[in-house]
Amino acid sequence: MFRKLVEKDPENPMILFSLGNELFKEEKYEEAKGHLQKAVENKPDYSVAFRTLGRTHFELGENEEARNVFERGREVAQANGDLQTVKEIDVFMKRLEKRAGGE
Protein backbone atom coordinates (compact mmCIF):
# COMPACT_ATOMS: atom_id res chain seq x y z
CA MET A 1 0.00 0.00 0.00
CA PHE A 2 2.76 2.48 0.93
CA ARG A 3 4.62 1.72 -2.30
CA LYS A 4 1.56 2.80 -4.28
CA LEU A 5 1.26 5.95 -2.20
CA VAL A 6 4.94 6.78 -2.77
CA GLU A 7 4.40 6.37 -6.52
CA LYS A 8 1.59 8.94 -6.35
CA ASP A 9 3.37 11.33 -3.98
CA PRO A 10 7.12 10.54 -3.99
CA GLU A 11 8.11 13.60 -1.94
CA ASN A 12 5.67 13.14 0.97
CA PRO A 13 7.79 12.60 4.09
CA MET A 14 5.02 10.84 6.03
CA ILE A 15 4.53 8.28 3.28
CA LEU A 16 8.28 7.85 2.80
CA PHE A 17 8.71 7.31 6.54
CA SER A 18 5.83 4.83 6.66
CA LEU A 19 7.28 2.77 3.81
CA GLY A 20 10.78 2.95 5.27
CA ASN A 21 9.49 1.95 8.69
CA GLU A 22 7.64 -1.08 7.31
CA LEU A 23 10.73 -2.15 5.37
CA PHE A 24 12.78 -1.74 8.56
CA LYS A 25 10.36 -4.00 10.43
CA GLU A 26 10.82 -6.58 7.66
CA GLU A 27 14.60 -6.26 8.09
CA LYS A 28 14.99 -4.87 4.57
CA TYR A 29 17.40 -2.28 5.90
CA GLU A 30 19.14 -1.31 2.68
CA GLU A 31 15.82 -0.60 0.97
CA ALA A 32 14.43 1.17 4.04
CA LYS A 33 17.45 3.46 4.25
CA GLY A 34 16.71 5.27 0.98
CA HIS A 35 13.11 6.04 1.87
CA LEU A 36 13.99 7.18 5.38
CA GLN A 37 16.82 9.37 4.09
CA LYS A 38 14.47 11.04 1.66
CA ALA A 39 11.90 11.54 4.43
CA VAL A 40 14.38 13.51 6.58
CA GLU A 41 15.61 15.46 3.55
CA ASN A 42 12.03 16.49 2.75
CA LYS A 43 11.15 17.21 6.39
CA PRO A 44 14.32 18.10 8.32
CA ASP A 45 12.44 18.34 11.64
CA TYR A 46 11.04 14.78 11.47
CA SER A 47 12.68 13.36 14.59
CA VAL A 48 11.04 9.91 14.41
CA ALA A 49 12.34 9.45 10.86
CA PHE A 50 15.84 10.35 12.07
CA ARG A 51 15.54 7.76 14.83
CA THR A 52 14.53 5.01 12.44
CA LEU A 53 17.15 6.04 9.87
CA GLY A 54 19.80 5.88 12.59
CA ARG A 55 18.58 2.46 13.63
CA THR A 56 18.75 1.34 10.00
CA HIS A 57 22.38 2.40 9.75
CA PHE A 58 23.00 0.68 13.10
CA GLU A 59 21.52 -2.61 11.82
CA LEU A 60 23.64 -2.36 8.67
CA GLY A 61 26.77 -1.94 10.80
CA GLU A 62 27.29 1.58 9.47
CA ASN A 63 28.36 2.94 12.84
CA GLU A 64 29.66 6.36 11.81
CA GLU A 65 26.56 7.09 9.72
CA ALA A 66 24.34 5.90 12.57
CA ARG A 67 26.14 8.18 15.03
CA ASN A 68 25.79 11.19 12.73
CA VAL A 69 22.10 10.56 12.13
CA PHE A 70 21.42 9.95 15.83
CA GLU A 71 23.22 13.16 16.81
CA ARG A 72 21.23 15.21 14.32
CA GLY A 73 18.00 13.41 15.24
CA ARG A 74 18.59 14.08 18.93
CA GLU A 75 19.01 17.80 18.22
CA VAL A 76 15.80 17.82 16.17
CA ALA A 77 13.87 15.86 18.80
CA GLN A 78 15.02 18.21 21.58
CA ALA A 79 14.03 21.23 19.51
CA ASN A 80 10.60 19.65 18.95
CA GLY A 81 10.20 18.75 22.62
CA ASP A 82 9.98 15.07 21.62
CA LEU A 83 11.49 13.66 24.81
CA GLN A 84 10.56 10.05 24.09
CA THR A 85 12.54 10.10 20.84
CA VAL A 86 15.47 11.71 22.67
CA LYS A 87 15.43 8.83 25.17
CA GLU A 88 15.24 6.21 22.42
CA ILE A 89 18.10 7.80 20.51
CA ASP A 90 20.16 7.88 23.72
CA VAL A 91 19.64 4.12 24.11
CA PHE A 92 20.98 3.50 20.62
CA MET A 93 23.88 5.88 21.11
CA LYS A 94 24.89 3.77 24.14
CA ARG A 95 24.62 0.63 22.02
CA LEU A 96 26.89 2.25 19.46
CA GLU A 97 29.41 3.08 22.17
CA LYS A 98 29.35 -0.53 23.40
CA ARG A 99 29.78 -1.78 19.85
CA ALA A 100 32.73 0.56 19.31
CA GLY A 101 34.29 -0.64 22.56
CA GLY A 102 34.04 -4.25 21.41
CA GLU A 103 35.69 -3.68 18.06
How would you describe this structure in keywords?
globular; mainly alpha; 103 residues; 6 helices; Serine Threonine Protein Phosphatase 5, Tetratricopeptide repeat; 83% helix
Task: State the major sheet.
Answer: none
In sequence order, what are the helices and strands, one letter per element?
HHHHHH
Helix content: over 70%
Strand content: under 5%
Report on this model:
The chain is 83% helix and 0% strand. It is mostly helical and 103 residues long. The chain has a single domain, classed as Alpha Horseshoe (Serine Threonine Protein Phosphatase 5, Tetratricopeptide repeat).
Short description:
The protein is mostly helical. It has helices at 2-8, 13-25, 29-42, 47-59, 63-80, 83-102. The longest helix is centred in the last third of the chain and has 20 residues, at 83-102.
What's the topology here?
Layout: H1 2-8, H2 13-25, H3 29-42, H4 47-59, H5 63-80, H6 83-102
Helix pairs in contact: 1-2, 2-3, 2-4, 3-4, 4-5, 4-6, 5-6
